[in-house]
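Deviations from the work plan: none for this task. Representative record:
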Amino acid sequence: MSYTNYSTRSLPFPVRYVVDLVRYRHLAWNLVGSDLRSRFRRSHLGILWAVLQPLGFSLIIAVVWSQVFKAASFMTFTVYVYSGMLVWDYFSQCISIGLDSLMSSRGYLKQARIPFLIFQVRVPLSGLVVMACGLIGLVVLMAVVGQLPPLGPHLLLVPLFMGMLLLLVVPLSIIFSIIGPSFRDARYIIALALQAVFFLSPVMLDRAVLHNPSLSMLQYLNPVIPLLDLFRDPMLHGLFWSRQDVIVWACWTGGLWAIAMWTMVRTGRKIIFAL
Amino acid sequence: MAGQLRAEDLRIVSSGETGEPSESREILRRDPQSCAIELENVTLRYPIGPFASGSLKSSLMRVFGHREDTPVVEYVDALRNLSLTVNLGERVGILGRNGSGKSTLLRMLAGIYPVNQGKVRVVGQIGTLLELGLGFETESTGRENIYYRGIAMGHSPARLREVEQEIVDFADIGEFIDLPMRTYSAGMGVRLGFAISTQLSPDVLLIDEIFGAGDATFQERALKRIMEVVHHAGIVMLATHDLSLVERLCTRVIWLDGGQLIRDGATAAVMPQFKAFLRGELTLESEA
């Protein structure tokens, strides 16, 4: 059983995926642009929602925390929650929207032989642009409350973190894009799982909670924890990354890519029948 | 009196079974850049997917020993042991009843559906017009969609910029070209899709039914465009229920039923048989 189109070269896996990604780079960029335009099209505030949404959530949480739990500093806490929400929103949306990334692209996939990978990286790439806008909002917020981190080489780690975040999230998007059409129950299970991960991550909880011996294992089992540390350490605290966070990130990223590659090879193009 | 197709007829149309080197294989050997299609004993099983596993209720019932009255269908044989060749300059009409495998054949040729058995060789760049409304970003304008769809077909933005105005002119949808595609009528979508798919002169043009959705004036222009595509040494394969369109456009007809090739030959030879079959004056051997 084989399919050969002599107008395109047939290459071995995984070289084929890299070549396809380069060959269809224009499509990937155009789809990212389309996502961003349609996400904020017909909205009066447009891309500002990339800042306003996490900011609004952070303010609500900060008000509740400061009133109910008598948290120390209202503005410090708002900045802390906002920074966490930027990472969490990106991570969770790449999974929840990624579940539908192939389904919602069936128009393209049933019209021409296009590599699935283009649509699997679409959500993480467009989400990264939204997150970058949110990052600008974070800097403005920190300036407004007078909590800008000290300038230094540690800030160079922030753009590097964005790349590392993408590297961890793309295999997740690949895996869930294949699970989505195959198991229609997945979206309900994953919605619940994401809620559990949210409450087990220091997005709005104090990071010190994880020093509790009964919760310390979460630092290895929950990939969001090292992501939050890798973002907040240079951005909020003026620190370099800890070795433990980098190692945990590397293990998760390597493991997820291995699963993603295995899933891609195993399903091949057969997933098209489920779309 | 009702006629009947015999097993011998089925063997005649299946050129891959003869063991002789086919004409398209010769073309491939002589000039790998030539445009040709060749199928060898292709079988495609379409999985039913999540429906096959049934509901939670039926799963629970099975745990308690309940047996379904009807067997669970896991797949359908969309194409069965299909062998054929299509050579340069041929305009092929694909005919058959609903569910006969016409659309599946086109999608398989486009490389969209993977085959379970057999070999598929397609030489040339493929242009498709397979399903109305598919492959468009509805929130984006028609002009933006020229790029999305053109790039999806493997063309560069620079090349698309060169032909953008020609596509807009051919689609002829006026100011709608700069409005979101969700505001388009079905006919407008077809006009734009057809203009994009054919403007860049694909070597192999695969069209599924939707061609008929445009108005009469557009259909005339579309026919002229298809002739131009063929003139550029291409292949056109058109799946449709519009027999008069096939008679006007196609030099050859492939008749499918139940995923099998029933007839393959000149339009003038196959069309009367297919019409007789539709009128019930001819039955297939498998139905006799």
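The mean pLDDT of chain B is 78.
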